Amino acid sequence: MADPIRYVISELGRNVLEHSQSQVGGFVCAQYFRDKKRIAIGMADAGIGIPSAIRRSHTFTSEAEALKLALTPGISGATPKIGGNDTNAGAGLFFIRSIAKVSGNFFVIYSGGTQYKLLRRQDNPNFLFTDPLMESHRVVNDLPKWQGTAIGIDITVDDKVEFAALLERIRNSYSIGVKARRKDYYKKVRFT
Ligand SMILES: Nc1ncnc2c1ncn2[C@@H]1O[C@H](COP(=O)(O)OP(=O)(O)OP(=O)(O)O)[C@@H](O)[C@H]1O
Ligand SMILES: [Mg+2]
Q1: Low-confidence ranges of the chain (pLDDT < 70)
Q2: Which pTM was predicted?
Q3: How confident is the model at residue 172, as a pLDDT?
Q4: Looking at the chain, which terminus has fewer C-beta neighbours within 10 angstroms, N or C?
């Protein structure tokens, strides 16, 4: 079970370090439920929150829309540094929510007063949508304001299913999704 735990904690931890500007770092907790072979991981920071981070490179009209953007593959709030070669591919949160989905599990992200929850019971369990609103989900607005970002994910990795194979499947959906989005984008900006 070490690989998925390492993967999730490093992606979420990297996000705290790269995007949150949290003065208190990040808090992580995890528990293993032996009978159900389920790992629950939570990470929270008290930084600027998803909407403020995404606002650097995208416009939106609600916190829910900002969360949607953050969960969409290929969308990053990071602006590339001039002369730098840091590549924020906008992949982390898509991979995290997809790991939850592929293993039939729960994922939740809460920032500001808004929460997006991926439901355990999915209408299309075998397909990974690039648009998080196409997944069976619930958005709740007007919650008590959390100044920062909190994320929860459950993972059940079947011993027979290699985690590497699972990541490969998600990687394929990521590439297809990002390519499709670029095509749409260029369609929009093409002048006729
Ligand atoms: N803890 C956080 N605090 C503030 N903003 C965040 C946090 N985590 C993610 N975000 C915002 O959500 C965006 C998407 O995150 P995601 O991990 O999917 O991509 P990325 O970090 O930009 O790129 P990659 O993970 O591929 O390096 C980030 O660019 C950032 O704007
Ligand atoms: Mg990231």
Answers
A1: 79-87, 158-161, 184-192
A2: 0.90
A3: 86
A4: C
Do residues 109 and 140 touch, judged by C-beta distance below 8 A? no
Count of residues making up the chain: 192
Ligand 1 neighbours, Cβ below 6 Å, are: 15-16, 18-20, 45, 47-50, 53-54, 70, 76-78, 88-94, 149
DSSP 144: P
- Compute the radius of gyration of the chain from its Cα atoms: 17
Helix (H) or strand (E) holding 4: helix 2-15
The CATH number given to 2-189 is 3.30.565
pLDDT value at residue 192: 43
Residues 143 and 115: their CA atoms lie apart, in Å, by: 8
Identify which ligand lies nearest to the alpha carbon of 20.
1
Report every protein residue that has its C-beta within 5 angstroms of ion ligand 2.
15, 92
Q: Which two tokens stand for residue 123?
A: 């209408």
Distance CA 53, CA 49 (A): 6
What per-residue confidence (pLDDT) applies to 154?
93
109: enclosing H helix or E strand: strand 107-112
